[in-house]
Design goal:
The complex is a heterodimer of chains A (401) and B (381). Chain A is α/β, with parallel strands linked by helices and 401 residues long. Helices cover 48% and strands 10% of the residues of chain A. In chain A, strand 7 and strand 8 form a beta hairpin. In chain A, helix 3 runs antiparallel to helix 8 and helix 15 runs parallel beside helix 17. In chain B, helix 2 runs parallel beside helix 10 and helix 9 packs parallel to helix 10. The chains are: A alpha/beta (401), B alpha/beta (381).
């Protein structure tokens, strides 16, 4: 099966809005190489469950492809057309299972030493696309906040080593009621700029009370879903013929109802949470991995204006065989190790925020929870400096603006 | 110059400068006298070689970059000053631990499925060595981290294959057998950090539990008791290696470390713990080599990662967590060589490839790795 042979009825298995979109752009799809199209269909098939920012990006990409002339389209995809595929890939049901096709394509590219050529083709395409469709600036400068170190009383090693060169380090923050004050700032931004999925609060433990206008995801809330997923994984591993690829296929096909994450009335967020658990590595077992990955995915997909991430202690390391077995025993925690994880996670949050449009005006604050240390990064903050002046967290945020 | 080459060279330069500043090693050049390694410092028939893969996958910023040096004190203070160090070892193959280790062991970029129970397609170093020197199976051993490595000892290549390669010990498999899968030992039994699935069925020349007492002179009870005192699978591997050295003294011994690969779970502190443990275990093995009569003074030790991990800057990855992007940082690693005939305290920063390793050992030990396209590393010859 090749893209040129596509017909409208072949998209009958797609959700309603995705099907409509696919049929609208069928002519575009027919002109794309097979090494590229399933990657695009992977976005299209989930269109009904995508965030507004993702939908807009996809719509713009499709409109741009539609506007290209035949020779232009050929030139844009010349490198992709040069990728050699196997007969097995050509026969794969890439229309209905584009994600699984992409997984197998990845394996094929490694095996046939075409990965570098594919990377170059993908990078060149992304650069062309960005040049053709300039990104919209955010409605207000983005603000990222990372709160790390919950449960740690004393820590002697230097924190925020990777972030400090990019901003100002504050050594005398007044920590009183700090988390609530930061959440108040998020709430105020949500009130002043009430856009859907624009203001987020991710908690690696128990979430605290927050206004409904803030999109919230927490590790604790997903505990039943995590347990259900681990039970499912265990069941799959004991089946005859089980293998990593079969397991990935099962996980890729999971829906919110499979994990009991379908009660919120927000199907977009339900699907997002399922993907955090089925696509993230370590998100099912370590709360610090969950918080970091959830932040990465929220930034990449929803492109929020405000993102507060609070890391919480993860469980002490256990082997996979033990971790995969749901237990009634309360998990022993590792606050110090989690602080190290979260310190790195905060750095990654900043990097991922800086990949979004408007990065030149973005602000980022990382704070050691209930302690006096914080680092603030914004256009107004002198880089690589240290301040010992006393300040509250809201004051610090006001200086960053 | 491609971007990949620029980054790889910058990486090598950083390592070289760090090593010069931190350890006082000299920058190698073609003007230096040739190494005595291949000129017979030890007769080939008596020479022993131990290979440690520093796995699975560690980045520069957590090892040889200035900010990473605190994680590898033993390599920096004890081993580097005694070694010839190669600062730019490039892996152009598939970045999966089994297939990359198979590529290292064959000198060919293998393309076998990383997660399947398959032997390498090209002859392994163990097969070349045994065939050319007519050595018995007891003279070449692999100690590997997980069941997935059970086929690493011998290839499917016609003319080599079953019975002609190395014996393979999978310490975690032995422990599992010794404890009948008891949950008490669960913390050591995890097979792979990349997938929660159990590994494929065992096959090949796998060392079985009942052979432990006969060959390693180690009772199941002693093995079980000692395992209770260990904190990681790699510590168990080193324990087995030391038993092998004492009881069989194989001429070719290959140890694959794997604790570092816990990074796949996304916990940075556990990844760092893995690096620090591997650093310590490498130094312990070097000390063991120097203290064992069968090995002291006639053993060369080679330490090298199978590959690196993704950079923080590549949006296609998630930093240290994986090795999936194929970027320059994940492909560029290092290697150190120690022992008789090796120039001490020298660093070379020109690129060599991981598939050059087997041809280099071929020249040093005197076997012919005829199916490897790699080139012997001249600075070790």
């Amino acid at each position: 099966m090749f893209p040129a042979d596509l017909k409208p009825e072949q998209f009958g298995g797609y959700p309603p809005e995705a099907r409509k979109l696919a049929i609208e752009y069928l002519g575009v799809f027919q002109g794309l190489p097979l090494s590229f199209l399933p990657s695009l269909l992977r976005e299209v098939i989930d269109y009904d469950y995508r965030f507004p920012a993702e939908r807009k990006t996809l719509e713009k990409e499709l409109a741009n492809l539609h506007a290209l002339s035949g020779p232009e389209l050929k030139e844009w995809f010349r490198e992709f057309a040069g990728i050699q595929l196997s007969g097995k890939l050509e026969r794969f049901d890439w229309i209905n299972s584009p994600s699984q096709f992409v997984e197998q394509l990845s394996s094929h590219l490694w095996t046939t030493h075409q990965l570098d050529a594919f990377r170059k083709a993908a990078t060149d395409y992304a650069n062309r696309l960005h040049a053709a469709i300039p990104a919209d600036p955010p409605a207000l400068p983005r603000l990222g906040i990372a709160v790390i170190g919950q449960g740690v009383d004393v820590h002697e090693e230097q924190l925020f080593r990777r972030l400090r060169p990019h901003g100002a380090f504050f050594a005398a923050i007044q920590p009183d009621d700090g988390l609530q004050r930061l959440l108040d700032v998020v709430a105020a931004r949500a009130k002043s700029t009430p856009l859907p999925y624009a203001h987020w609060y991710i908690d690696g433990g128990h979430e605290i009370l927050h206004p409904a206008a803030i999109t919230c995801v927490s590790y604790k809330n997903l505990e039943p879903a995590r347990a259900a997923l681990l039970t499912r994984i265990q069941a799959e591993t004991t089946k005859a013929g089980a293998g990593p690829e079969a397991l990935r296929t099962v996980m890729a096909q999971m829906r919110p109802a499979d994990l009991g994450v379908d009660q919120s009335g927000d199907r977009v967020l339900d699907y997002f949470q399922v993907k955090l658990l089925t696509e993230g590595s370590g998100t099912q077992i370590f709360s610090t991995s969950f918080a970091q990955w959830a932040a990465r995915e929220a930034l990449r997909r929803a492109q929020p204006l405000t993102l507060l991430v609070r890391f919480a202690p993860r469980q002490r390391q256990k082997p996979m065989s033990e971790l995969l077995a749901p237990s009634r025993e309360p998990a022993e925690l590792d606050p110090i190790g989690s602080l190290v994880d979260a310190d790195m996670g905060a750095y990654y949050n900043w990097i991922n925020q800086q990949r979004l449009p408007g990065s030149e005006k973005s602000m980022f604050l990382a704070w050691f929870e209930n302690h006096r240390e914080a680092v603030a990064i914004s256009p107004s903050m002198p880089r690589g400096t240290v301040s010992t002046s006393a300040a509250t967290l809201p004051e610090l945020l006001s200086w960053m603006a | 110059m491609s971007r990949f080459r620029q980054i790889a060279q910058q990486l090598a330069f950083t390592r070289r400068e760090f090593l010069r500043n931190a350890t006082g090693v000299a920058l190698g050049s073609a003007l230096l006298r040739p190494s005595a390694l291949a000129r017979g410092a030890t007769p080939s028939s008596k020479r022993k070689v131990v290979v440690i893969t520093f796995g699975g996958g560690a980045r520069d910023q957590e090892t040889f970059a200035p900010e990473g040096q605190e994680n590898i004190p033993h390599l920096v203070r004890e081993l580097i000053p005694q070694s010839t160090f190669f600062a730019q070892v490039v892996n152009r193959g598939i970045l999966g631990h089994y297939v990359a280790t198979a590529s290292l062991a064959t000198g060919v970029y293998e393309t076998i499925n990383n997660f399947a129970s398959l032997p390498p397609e090209s002859p392994t170093i163990f097969e070349y060595f045994r065939k050319d020197f007519k050595r018995p199976a007891s003279d070449a051993w692999v100690v590997a981290p997980s069941n997935g490595f059970n086929r690493i000892g011998e290839s499917s290549h016609r003319g080599f294959g079953p019975g002609s390669g190395a014996r393979v010990i999978l310490p975690k498999y032995l422990l599992s057998a010794a404890t009948s899968g008891s949950a008490d030992y669960g913390h050591l039994l995890r097979d792979s950090y990349e997938t929660p699935l159990s590994a494929p069925e065992l096959g090949g020349s796998t060392f079985e539990l009942e052979q432990m007492e006969r060959i390693l002179k180690l009772s199941v009870d002693d093995f079980r008791s000692h395992a209770r005192t260990l904190s990681s699978p790699d510590e168990l591997s080193v324990y087995i290696v030391r038993q092998l050295m004492r009881q069989l003294a194989p001429s070719l011994l290959w140890v694959t470390m794997h604790d570092i690969d816990i990074a796949h779970a996304g916990a940075y502190s556990l990844y760092i713990d893995g690096i620090r443990r591997t650093d310590r275990l490498c130094a312990e093995l070097w000390k063991a080599i120097q203290s064992e009569p069968e090995y002291a003074g006639k053993t060369n030790l080679f330490i090298l990662p199978d590959f690196g991990r993704d950079s923080d800057d590549d949006p296609g990855g998630n930093g240290f967590q994986h090795h999936r992007t194929g970027d320059a940082l994940s492909r560029t690693t290092w290697m150190m060589a120690l022992g008789p005939g090796v120039r001490e305290g020298v660093v070379f920063d020109h690129p060599v490839e991981t598939i050059d390793f087997v041809p280099t050992l071929g020249v040093l030990m005197g076997f012919s790795p005829s199916f490897s396209p790699g080139k012997p590393i001249s600075e070790l010859l």
